[in-house]
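To whoever picks this up:

The nightly regression suite flagged Cytochrome P450, putative as changed. Nothing in the input moved, so I suspect the structure step. Input below, exactly as stored in the fixture:
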Amino acid sequence: MTPFATVANAELFMISGLETVSSALSFTAHLLAKHQDVQDKLRAEVKLLLEKDGNFSYDNIFSLQYLKQVIAESSRFYPAQPGNVTRRCVKDFEFNGFRIPKDTHVLVPVHLMHHDPRYWVEPEKFNPDRFSPENKSTIEPMAYIPFGIGTRNCPASRLAEFELSLVIAKTVAKFKLHLCDEPEKLC
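Regenerated output under the current build:
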């Protein structure tokens, strides 16, 4: 790869992540403001880490189990890519009696799948505990794809998770988020 191509690809990764990470942050902040009990539990976890380590690091931010659950549930509730994941069928395929010919474009509706009651108990309820270590194994792997799936999934998913984790942890450590009672007065 040429130096120009390397820089162009790096720039593409950074720019591509701006909109999705900012959307995920906004949606997570909204959900935390709406669910004070979740926010309080998350704040307690973050404060314990800060008392122990004094600051956030790449390693310790990923040790925050409840934060991981909040981000996972927020990503399920409001996927950063709310549209479809698109793939091309590379060979003739049959699934549940349906024949999918080679070269057919297949659309996977992420938002619909993340809210499908066949895969999620009370799918319209914000519940970070569904991603707890005890419950995570009950999740159908193909029913939760916030960063896409397979070899063409988001190459910057780990960076996005780190950015989300760090900003959310720093936010709840310093601020208490609330919904605005009279949003029309904000303008």
